[in-house]
Amino acid sequence: MxxxxxxxxxxxxxxxxxxxxxxxxGDTVHxxxxxxxxxxxxxxxxxxxxxxxxxxxxxxxxPTRAQSMAEATYGFVHKMVTDITGxxxxxxxxxxMTLFLFVLCSNLLSLIPTSFAPTSHIAxxxxxxxAVFISVTVIGFVKHGAHFLNLFWVASAPTVALRIVLAxxxxxxxxxxxxxHSVRLAGNLMAGHAVLKVFAGFxxxxxxxxxxxxxxxxxxxxxxxxxxxxxxxxxxxxxCVYLNDALHPGH
Length: 251
Prior knowledge:
The chain is mostly helical and 251 residues long.
């Protein structure tokens, strides 16, 4: 039975695409080993840098496509930051812009066939989420001192006992933020890429009669492009919400 299954062409391994492997052969990965993850992280940084550098190079009155894309991205993120955090949060716009571009470019580049998806790995998204968590916490205590703890105290609750219960819930939800922030991004990217791999495996196994899997691949690929953009937006907007809590604590 194993031989028949092996010869049927239905040996689909959707999780192999997430394996971190050395770029120059071998099976052992050390902390200093260049891997496929290293390559695609560098390409992500290069793509984000190229978009903004090429878009801001000419500064023409009649913008080029690159300039239009860069200006639209800049304006979109800047409006999001100021709408959520107010003028006080505008100084942190470069950081949020960098996060948005990094996640967006990584998500979109991972849709290239045979590419690697860094943001499908919790090791990458957890670092981004922890950086946000630590940054906003430090900002909150630096700007407000002990008054930052008002974020956890629901003064509008009718009784002290209820306020204590709500404070415990608020503290737990606060420290869960980096987990939910990172898992949401990695989980969505991993699930979408795994589904694409499964349907691609069915299409390859069925050969000339693979009409349904091919149409499914096209539909799912279009959905994944939308997910790539939406997840970058969600990651950035959650960062803005957390920053707003640090700038304006209290209920």
